[in-house]
Every structure is written in structure tokens, then in C-alpha cells.
Amino acid sequence: MAIKIRKEDALNYHTQGSPGKIEVIPTKPLSSQMDLALAYSPGVAEPCKEIAADVENIYKYTAKGNLIGVISNGTAVLGLGDIGPEASKPVMEGKGVLFKKFAGIDVFDIEINERDPKKLIQIIKSLEPTFGGINLEDIKAPECFEIETELKKEMKIPVMHDDQHGTAIISGAALLNALEIVEKDISNIKLVVNGAGAAAISCTRFYISLGIKRENIVLCDIVGILRSDRTDLDEIRREFCTDRDLYTLTDAMKDADVFLGLSAGNIVNQDQLRLMAPNPIVFALANPDPEIAYDLAIAAREDLIMATGRSDHPNQVNNVLGFPYIFRGALDVRATAINETMKLAAAHAIAKLAKEPVPDIVNKAYGEDKLGFGRLYLIPKPLDPRLITTIAPAVAKAAMETGIAKYPITDWDAYELELQERIGIDQRLMSVVIARAKKNPKRVVFAEADNRKILKAAQIIRDEKIGEPILLGNREKILSLIVDNSLDLTNVLIIDPMEEKEMLARFADMLFKKRQRKGMTSGDASRLVTQRNYFGALMVESGAADAFISGLTRDYPKTILPSLQTIGVKPGVNRVAGMYIMNTPKGPYFFADATVNLNPTAEELVEIIGLTADAVKFFNVEPRIAVLSYSNFGSAKGDIPGKMAKAAALAKKKYPDLIIEGEMQANVAINEDIQREMYPFSKLINKRANTLIFPDLSSGNIAYKLLAELGNSEAIGPILLGMNKPVHILQLGSSIREIVNMVAVAVVDAQSAKNL
């Protein structure tokens, strides 16, 4: 029996993304005869006809817009030299892995057995219909210059020889930051470049674009200084010849500010470094052995800043910091080229990112505890997940500004989310919360400001305009930590409670009046307000701050008690509750109560359900509530099923407008197929549960922690529900990102007249 294929079904099956909108391309289903007919004949004819009518539709109906060709002829492979196209294939395949891992870009690697540059140009040019961009790789100089130049002229897609420009962009970013540290003006520095191959020439040209004067540059190759009187130089190298009285590398190193090595290992000695100007910058990028060993260089000059191409030394100049994200930005606006402005934008974006607080995930990946901008950290680490959302937008904007973007981006917030999704980071819900926080930042007081994580988070919060941090703690210790971690918290308010005699007296009076009929004396109040958890909570209660954050270093019960005694619960609320947001690959789930109430009664669970439903709505999500136990609708007897069934029944009566179902097992709650087959009466069919109510603290706490560790999910919380003013308690040992997320929640909470 023939299958009838509708045109719209065939086109929808092949659609990759509408023009002007960047989409993450899912895997196409191929599990039925219908899928096969859509994927190939007869369905495939429809997109073919659409593309024939308008060739630009190729980006809509095929994967071209997310496909890069990594192309080499194997004439300059790594440090191995001219080993041929077959031997180059592992490198090209590896490059494809990096493109996919770091930027979500698909790759075909193509190894071409052709050494004639003109023939190679024609071969690559003929591949333009297949690819959205071309990454040239491991092609020897000087042919690589001719090949790239001609392809950029003749092709209407981005083309870049990464060996040239990748090294230039990354080392250029490192140079900008190194010069800032040593307080030298780029227009006045003297540069010595050892090496005159593709990377060296391109780096030199790029540094000129950054601001170095051509007359302050000297290049040296294996023969000696590139001088005008040499007869062995091609036109490309003659571009950098000098007439000065310099003949050897040693001559050139005298009073040089910067040395850039792109040559061979162990050809520079300590005496040559000692000839350089004060605070010299040495980029010894030969691999695997630098031009001078790191330990020897540091021993020769205490004032030296050094970068290498090795991962076992600080400041690794690694091209993976650049090419995935440069092509990502170029593809996403459908740029017709990668121009100098885009490369400069990438370098400046990389340099700027290095000055921002380093996420915990990066510190942990590299076995560090306080990476930060300085002589040992000039550029970000390759595993920094912020690279894609920093560099790709900068490149895309530069393409738009220079008029080569065929489909400009208009919604940059949405674009950032799409970039995160491409590499497996889905923070959509929190991105919405952070965007809301930025619209009206509030004053957030931190009780534990003598902690480096809090201080790093505070800088992000201040820099990103999420909120206005107020730091509580010993002033000298906080200032020392700021310096030790290379942070910039200028103009952030620091309050040492022990220095604030007037506030202490006022807060002690407030606390005594609140607790005098609950056994607290005036002396007790005066003593307690010196503790930061009391002081910070009273700042919020008195209006001196808008939200309170604590709990990073103390147990939850000890942290929450001062806020309960000073701020208290909302009118009509009998008890507070705790909720976690679990960001999972299937979307956000809301867990309650996993932190506060040990073993709530059915009546107490009804109140928890109401508080949780309000909180879920607060995040602009419709609550679809499953009341959980080990039973399904009375299938098993016991105290817990009985309690949860009663809670569900009472909650349905009290909140008739909410979707509430249960009691039921957790897997049934989130599996509509089971419900459809076994429990067709369930209100959660076609409305998958997103809010899970647990019978006690133990089950909720175990569930969220298991999911966080084993389920590839991020826990946001605990979010405290029912307080009269914004108070939020961190998980013990929260990461910097988790702190920032919680502060964003607290700020939005403070913006709302009806708090969580």
C-alpha cells in the first residue's frame, strides 16, 4: 500500500530553521515507514524543489548552515611537518570533535591529495554548496596565504585558516591583558617575533591591527633577522623586513617588551631574556617544547609574564578558545566571510572574559581553587562554558556591524539561550528570572561575605546588574580576600556589624520587642544582633536591605532560625516550606518540601501545596501537582499512602483551580503513557506533572540529591516559601553559579509585592 505524503509534512520534516531564526537542530525520527518516506523518496522531492526555486532555501531545509568543512592537504601537520593527507586525518577528525563539543557545529573532515595551490583552491571552491563554512587546517606556508586569500575572494561563506588566525586571536587577547597588567601602551611597545611561518606572519599582522606600530616589530627566522638586504625572502616575508642594525635574535631582544615565539623548542636562553625591557612578556608557543622552558624563563626574570602552548603551564594559548565560537557566530548570522573586525571582536571578548570571576566548574576542572585575572591567568581556560555565550555573540555583532550578515540576530537573550542549549546547558528558566532581576535590581545583603565564593558571586551580581550586593563581615578580612582573588568590588558596600554601634542598638531594640514575650531578654537581643544572620535579617526587616542570603557555610536549621525570629512568616501562613527547582533535560521540576518540614501532617501538606503552587506560578509556570507516595490511588495501604491521599483530597477542595493528582508513585506521575494505560482518569494525562509533593523531608531530600548527582540535573534552591520578606538560604557549599541563581530569585522576590 502506497503512503501518501503531503507537501507540508515533507517540508516540515526537512526544515532545519527558518531564515533569520537560529534553532538547535534535533535528530530526525526514523522509526516507521512514514518517517522513511519523508526522509527519502518520495518526501525528499519537496525540499529539493524548494531549493531549486530559491537556493537560499538550502539553509532552511538542510544542515548546511551548521556544517563546517575541515580541510587539509597534510603539508604542515602539528609539529610533524609534511606527512601527507592520510596521516593528517586523525588531526582533522579531532578538530571535528572540538567543533561539536564546544560549539555544537557539525563537521566533515576532508583530506585532499593535492599540493598545487591553484588546483587546491578549485577543489575547495567546488565544495561551497555543501558547507556553511570552511576551516583550513595544516597547510604549509607560503601556499596557505594564497589559498586562503583566493578562497575568501571567490566564496560567499566564511573561510578561515585556523593555524594563522586562531593563534593570532588567542595570543592577541593574552597580549592585551598582559599589557594591562604591566601598564604598557601597545602603541609604544617593541615586539620581537621568532619564526616567519603562517602563524607568525598572521600574528604579527593581527598585532598591528591591535595597535602595535610596524616600525617597532622585528621578525627573525632560522637564518636571522628579516632584513631588506636579504635575497632569500618571498614577498610575504619582505612585508616585515627592517633596515636597522640588527642581525641576530640576541640583537633584537635588547630592550624588547614582547617576545613571540612560533618557531622551535629550546632556542632562546636566559641571557637573552635578561636583555629585555622591565616586565617583559614572553609568549613561547612552540609545541611540544617552548622556545625556552617555562621554569628557566621564570628563573631568569621575576618580573616576566609568560604564556606557552602547553596545558601544564599557566596561560596556555590554545586555539580551541577561538575557532569553535568564531565559526558559531559567523554561521548564526549567515556571514559571508570572517573579516578583521570579527577577529578583533573575538580577541577583545576573550580578553574581557578573563577579567570576570571564574566559575567553580572551571576551578574544579583544573584542580584550582582561586583562578583569577593576573600574571598567571591572562586568558580563560578552554573548559569555561561561558566562552560560547561571550565570543559567538561578539563575532555575530561584528559581522552585522560590517554589513556581511545575511540574517541578523534581533533577540540576543534568546540567542544566548540557544547557544547554551547547543552545548547542553539549559538554563532557560533561570535566564528568565535573571532577566527579570536586571530590570529592577535590589539590595541583597550577604551574611557570609568573608567567603571567596560569595565575593565572586557578588562581583557577577554587581557587574551583570542583577542586584546591589551588601557585604557583611570583618572589613579587613573581606578586603584581603578581594585582593587575594583579584576581584573588583569597588563601591560595593561593606558593613562590619561590630563597627555599627548605632545600628546594633537599634536592631537590639527591634529584636527585643519582637521576642520579649517569647523568653528573650534585652541582653540576649544585644548579644544576638552581633551575629551576622540576625544583623542581616534585621537589615531587611528595617528596610536597610531588600533581600537576605545566607547558609553557604552553616547548617540550614541554624541559618533559618534568626530570620524566623526577626522577619517571620506571611500573615495567614502557619509554617514555612522549602522548594527546589530541578533543571532537567526534560524541563524544570519543582520539589517540595525537601528542606524544612520533617514529617508534615495531611493538613500541613495542604498548606505546603498552596505555598508551592504560588511559587511555581511566580516563575511563570503552570503548576501541575502530583502528590507522591509508594502507592497509586490506594493500591497499597499504610500511613504514608493514607496521609497523602487525604492531603490530595483536602487540597483539591481548598484549591479547586489547581491541577492536583494523587496519591501516586513518582514514575507514574511523570509518565503519561502509564497513566493513559492504567489510570485513564488522571488529570495529568496530556499535562505532565511538574510539581512533586513529597510525604516527608527525608524522601524529598533524597530524591533531589539523587537526581542532582545521577540525573544530569541542576538543583536551584532551596527556595524558602512563606516568609514575610525575601530570605533565601543557600545549600551548604553552593557553587558560585548556584549563589548567583539564588540571588536572582531573591531579587525578583523582592520586586514582587507578594513574596514567595
Automatic annotation (TrEMBL):
Signal peptide: none annotated. In the C-terminal section; belongs to the phosphate acetyltransferase and butyryltransferase family. In the N-terminal section; belongs to the malic enzymes family. Residues 164-400 form the Malic enzyme NAD-binding domain. Keywords: Metal-binding, Multifunctional enzyme, NADP, Oxidoreductase. Pfam families: malic (PF00390), Malic_M (PF03949), PTA_PTB (PF01515). Residues 19-152 form the Malic enzyme N-terminal domain. The active site is at K95 (proton acceptor). The keyword Ligase does not apply. NADP(+) binds at V77, L78, G79, L80, G81, D82, I83, G84. GO terms for molecular function: acyltransferase activity; malic enzyme activity; metal ion binding; NAD binding; oxidoreductase activity, acting on the CH-OH group of donors, NAD or NADP as acceptor. The keyword Metal-binding applies. CDD domains: NAD_bind_2_malic_enz. This is Malate dehydrogenase (Oxaloacetate-decarboxylating)(NADP+). SUPFAM superfamilies: Aminoacid dehydrogenase-like, N-terminal domain, Isocitrate/Isopropylmalate dehydrogenase-like, NAD(P)-binding Rossmann-fold domains. One of its GO terms (biological process) is malate metabolic process. A divalent metal cation binds at E137, D138, D163, N287. Gene3D superfamilies: 3.40.50.10950, Isocitrate/Isopropylmalate dehydrogenase-like, Malic enzyme, N-terminal domain, NAD(P)-binding Rossmann-like Domain. Its cofactor is Mn(2+); Mg(2+). InterPro entries: Aminoacid_DH-like_N_sf, Malate_Decarboxylase, Malic_N_dom, Malic_N_dom_sf, Malic_NAD-bd, Malic_NAD-bd_bact_type, ME_PTA, NAD(P)-bd_dom_sf.
